[in-house]
Design brief:
The complex is a heterodimer. By secondary structure, chain A is mainly β. In chain A, about 0% of the residues lie in helices and about 50% in strands. In chain A, strands 2, 4, 5, 6, 9, 10 and 11 form a seven-stranded mixed β-sheet that branches. Chain A is globular, with a radius of gyration of 13 Å. Chain B is mainly β. Chain B has no helices and eleven strands. The chains are: A mainly beta, B mainly beta. Chains A and B meet through strand 4, strand 5, strand 9 and strand 10 of A and strand 5 and strand 10 of B.
Chain lengths: ~100, ~120
């Protein structure tokens, strides 16, 4: 099974900060990497797919990069509404999620 | 508008069975593959299974293999999760999600979830 490891597990930022979350796969997953945002009490929401493609309707302050085993999700200027837990997910082989990164402001 | 609505969650004793449903609307359900994902209280997301659009391919996570069965009724726009031999560790919110059918296969729409509590 492919293991996904996110870091950090949690982080605290100020409004306007640039924030980066990393996700590492235990083997190459090419660009089969997706990011989801989950706000408290809500279902997850797709943010990015294919490592760097922004889902429709998602603000452009979100961006993603990476290929192979190492990936990043960046929020260029954190806003209060970005408080959430962020999950990476590989869809290369039998899907699996990272453990999540909780963002606080 | 795409909508996925799960139902069937309940409090159930260990060893019991439960069937969850996911009602789909706003898209051609029969054309899409679907996943089930769960989330234990205060924990992260766990993928538990996949079903192809025509039911020919079904895959499960090891944690539920042999106990859970995924099925669908395309005529009724419905997805199901039959859960048998339930354990305390199956306690979670269960989500159905639509799978985008071309690489990189992402989950683009999710239901609101239904809570299953396994406890004596």
């Amino acid at each position: 099974d492919i293991q996904m490891t996110q870091s950090p597990s949690s982080l605290s930022a100020s409004v306007g900060d640039r924030v980066t979350i990393t996700c590492r796969a235990s083997e190459s997953i090419r660009n089969y990497l997706n990011w989801y945002q989950q706000k408290a009490g809500e279902a997850p929401k797709l943010l990015m797919y294919g490592a760097s493609s922004l889902q429709s309707g998602v603000p452009s302050r979100f961006s993603g990069s990476g290929s192979g085993t190492d990936f990043t999700l960046t929020i260029s200027s954190v806003q209060p509404e970005d408080v959430a837990t962020y999950y990476c997910q590989q869809s290369y082989r039998i899907k699996s999620f990272g453990q999540g990164t909780k963002l606080e402001i | 508008e795409v909508q996925l609505v799960e139902s069937g969650g309940a409090l159930i004793q260990p060893g019991g069975s439960l069937r969850l449903s996911c009602a789909a609307s706003g898209f051609t359900f029969s054309s899409y593959e679907m996943d089930w994902v769960r989330q234990a209280p205060g924990k992260g997301l766990e993928w538990i299974g996949y079903i192809s659009s025509n039911e020919k391919n079904i895959y499960y996570a090891d944690s539920v293999k042999g106990r859970f069965t995924i099925s669908r009724d395309n005529a009724k726009n419905s997805l199901f999760l039959q859960m048998n031999s339930l354990r305390v560790e199956d306690t979670a919110v269960y989500y159905c999600a639509r799978l985008w059918e071309t690489p990189p296969y992402y989950l683009d729409y999710w239901g609101q979830g239904t809570l299953v509590t396994v406890s004596s």
